[in-house]
Amino acid sequence: GQQLNQSPQSMFIQEGEDVSMNCTSSSIFNTWLWYKQDPGEGPVLLIALYKAGELTSNGRLTAQFGITRKDSFLNISASIPSDVGIYFCAGQPQKLVFGQGTRLTINP
Amino acid sequence: DTAVSQTPKYLVTQMGNDKSIKCEQNLGHDTMYWYKQDSKKFLKIMFSYNNKELIINETVPNRFSPKSPDKAHLNLHINSLELGDSAVYFCASSHTGTGSFRTQYFGPGTRLLVL
Predict the structure, then answer these.
(1) What are the φ/ψ torsions at residue A83 (nearest 5 degrees)?
(2) Rounded to an integer, what distance in angstroms lies between the CA atom of residue A70 and that of residue A29?
(3) CA gap B48, B26 in Å, rounded
(4) Which pLDDT tens digit goes with each residue over B23-55?
(5) How does residue A2 score in pLDDT terms, banded at 50, 70 and 90?
């Protein structure tokens, strides 16, 4: 079946640093979504991308839908403590497929 | 206002028991989903219902039976619970269609622990 490779699996950074994570797929997707999951909560949608090449921002977050339609990245600028959590990419031609998640830890 | 809600939030039960998890959405969506998140945080779809009809069933054991009384509700009943069923179960919902209409919104999860 379709698989998403998300990297890195974990990140340990200092507050104020920029963060970058990405996802690659073995097949073409029509939609890329980025979610964040806080401990004890469900995934919350951060950014949704619907067209190849699309670059979308949401505050300090920026995500892009790769031109090949097989990849996407998420950048977080000037990280703050509340950015801590697990970030998931997800893509769908049909059903939604999730990456393995990137666990972000921030040292104050 | 809660968009996608699940009950209960925590469920601790003995092996062999039967239990149900309820999900409700007030977003006016016509498609609802159940996902399972394992201990490594991997999220995998289990079922999808559109207008009360099953459209995705991902090789889930027959012990799991979803039921959708109406478009706003999708419940999950689990028979003869096993230790391996321990996980967090998430409900989600979306519109049908393409693009932004299919973006899924998740509930807060139900943490199931089978002893």
Answers:
(1) -75, -10
(2) 6
(3) 17
(4) 999 999 999 999 999 998 999 999 999 888 888
(5) low
Q: Which two tokens stand for residue A5?
A: 């490779």
| HSE (side-chain half, CA atoms, 13 Å) at A17 | 13
Q: Please report residues of B whose CB lies closer than 8 A to that of A3.
A: none
Report the SS3 class of residue B101: helix
Does B103 contact A95 at a Cβ distance shorter than 8 Å? no
From the candidates B5, B33, B103, which should be mutated to test the interface with A, based on the most A CB atoms within 10 A? B103
Which residues of chain B make contact with A31, given a CB cutoff of 8 A?
99, 102-103
**What is the distance in angstroms between the Cα of B63 and the nearest Cα belonging to chain A?**
22
| Mean pLDDT calculated for residue range B72-90 | 96
Cα A37 to Cα B17: distance, rounded to the nearest angstrom? 30
Residues of A with CB below 8 A from B40's CB?
Answer: 100
Q: Is A50 on the interface with B (CB under 8 A)?
A: yes
B21 DSSP β-pair partners:
B76
